[in-house]
Design a protein that fits this description.
mainly beta, 0% helix
Length: 127
């Protein structure tokens, strides 16, 4: 079993930055791809970014490409999401998730492939 706890959310003005963290316990994450998803009020959950177990492969949603950076520190059993140039449309609850995959460079963008989820952290971007 893997427990995931997100932190770092908050209120920021448009154009600002936030860094989200996701700390895992219960199992080491080296063999898990890690993803960030978000859900805004009245909308479906959407993929934001993911990173392979090795950290060697990353993928981003087109809407955040060039503004967000996902990274991980397997020694600390943690994954991060650096969010720059934030926009009001980035407002959502952000959740991290872990997926046990077939290889160290495997990533996945579909939420149903993820095995474990955190509770989420609210990010609000004001105009």
């Amino acid at each position: 079993q893997v427990q995931l706890v997100e932190s770092g959310g908050g209120l920021v003005q448009a154009g600002g930055s936030l860094r989200l963290s996701c700390a895992a316990s219960g199992r080491t994450l080296n063999n898990y791809a890690m993803g960030w998803f978000r859900q805004a009020p009245g909308k479906e959950r959407e993929f934001v970014a993911c990173i392979s177990g090795s950290g060697g492969t990353v993928d981003y949603a087109d809407s955040v490409k060039g503004r967000f950076t996902i990274s991980r520190d397997n020694a600390k059993n943690s994954v991060y999401l650096q969010m720059d140039s934030l926009k009001p449309e980035d407002t959502a609850v952000y959740s991290c998730a872990a997926a046990r995959g077939p290889g160290a460079y495997w990533t996945v963008q579909t939420d149903y492939e993820y095995d474990y989820w955190g509770q989420g952290t609210q990010v609000t971007v004001s105009t």
